[in-house]
Amino acid sequence: MTPSMQSYLEAKRTVDDRALNRRVFEQFTAELAEIDEPVRVTEFGCGVGTMVSRLVEWECLPTRTRYHAIDRDPESVVAARKRLPDRLEAAGYRIVDGSDVPEAERREDGLETTVDARSRDRRIDLSLEVADALSTATGDDGDRSTGPEPDDARSRVSGSDDARSRGTGTADAVIAAAFLDVVDLDRALDAASTRLEPGGLLYAPITFDGATGFAPPHPLDERIERLYHRHMDDVRDRDGGSTTGRQLLSALPANGFELLATGGSDWIVRPRSGESGGYPATEQVFLEAILETIDDALAAYPATVLDPSDRTTWVSTRRRQLEAAELSFVSHHLDVLARLEKRRTKK
Questions:
Q1: Which InterPro entries does UniProt cross-reference here (predicted)?
Q2: What gap in Å lies between CA 252 and CA 260, rounded to an integer?
Q3: Nearest alpha-carbon partner for 263 in 336, 184, 347
Q4: pTM of the predicted model as reported, rounded to 2 decimal places
Q5: Is the dihedral of CA 124, 130, 133, 135 positive or negative?
C-alpha cells in the first residue's frame, strides 16, 4: 500500500532531524536571535508542520515569533492544524483561543491569528495557509485559502489576509526545507526576496544535490540512479532538478543574496542493530515512499530506455530487502543559509 503524502512527511521527520547540518542550523538560529522582535518567519512548503514543531521543541525560536506556514496541499495543512496544538502543549506552551487575545494583538502586521501559543517566557503566533507560496509572494494569481475549518477550537491555527501574504518585506526569515529542488529555482528565489525584509534570512535545508544510493549493492544500481535523476531533470512534468543544492551556491549571489553558510545534510536510513531490529520510528514508511517514487519515475521510460523486467527486478528486490529490514538508503543534500542585503537588527 502506497503511503499517503502526510504519512511520508511525518515519517521523514526523524530522518531530517538526523540530517540537518547543525553548524548551518545553529548559525540560522543565532541570526534569528539578533532580529528585533517579534521575529516574522514565513515557511514555504510547510507540509504537516514538522519544521515549526522542531524549532519549538528544540527551543530555537526567539522569545516572540510570528510564524506564517504555507503549503499548497490542503490535506497537509489540515494535518498540521490537527497535530501542532498537541505538540506545542507537549513542549510547554499554552494554547490561547483568539477570542481571549486583544484585537490589537490579533491583527498585528495585517495578520489575524485566531490561536497563539505561550510558554512561561515565549510566545508564538502561528498561521497556516493553503496557497502556492511562490504565487502569493510575488502577487501572481493562484489558489489561496486558509483551508477547511477544523472542528476543535484548539486547532484553529489559521487565518491570514492579502496584506500579509502579498506585500513586500513581510518576513525577517523565509524557511524552505526540502522545497527548492521541487520548484522553479529562479522563481522561488524571487518569491523569497519579495517576501523578505532587506537583510532578511533565507534558510533552505535538505536541498537535494544529486546522489541517491542503496545498500546492499545491486547490479542495476548505477543505471537506476542515473534514470531517476534524469527523470527529475528532464522527464517529470514539474519544476525542480537533481542538482539544485549546488546550483544554489551560484544562484543566490546572482539573485542578491549573501551566502552565509552551507553544509551537507545527507539522509541516512538503515536498520537498527541488535535484537530490536527493524527501522527507527516510522522510517520504514519513509523508505516505502522513496521506493514508490523511484518506481513511478522509472515507469515513465519506454522499454527502449529501460526494460520493464529490469525495473521490476530492481524494485521488487529492494522491497523484499526493506520488508526484511536489510535495506539501507543514502541521499545527498545541502543546507544553505543566505541573507538579502542589510538585516533589521535589535534597537
A1: SAM-dependent_MTases_sf
A2: 10
A3: 336
A4: 0.88
A5: negative
Tell me the pLDDT tens digit for each residue of 174-212. Answer: 999 999 999 999 999 999 999 999 999 999 999 999 999
Grid coordinates given for 32 = 534569528
Estimate to the nearest angstrom the gap between the alpha carbon of 226 and the chain centroid: 25
The identity of residue 95, as a single letter, is: I
Q: In Å, how far are 59, 109, 127, 256, 308 from 33, measured between CA atoms?
A: 12, 20, 21, 23, 54
242: enclosing H helix or E strand = none
Gyration radius of the chain's alpha carbons: 21
Inter-residue contact 155 to 82 (CB < 8 Å): yes
pLDDT less than 50: residues of the chain:
99, 104-113, 141-167, 343-344
CA 255 to chain centre: 21
Reported as a single tens digit per residue, the pLDDT across 224-256 is 999 999 999 998 767 899 999 999 999 999 999
**Cα–Cα distance measured from residue 135 to residue 127, given in angstroms and rounded to the nearest whole number:** 18
DSSP-derived secondary structure letter, 4 = P
* DSSP per-residue string spanning 252-320: HHHTTEEEEEEEE--EEE-PPPSSS-S-STTHHHHHHHHHHHHHHHHHTS-TTTS-HHHHHHHHHHHHH
Contact 51, 43 (CB under 8 A): yes
Domain ranges of the chain: 5-212+239-266+332-340
Amino acid in position 116? D
Strand partners, 35: 345
**Domain 5-212+239-266+332-340 of CATH type 3.30.540.10:** no
CA angle 39–40–41, rounded 5-degree value = 115
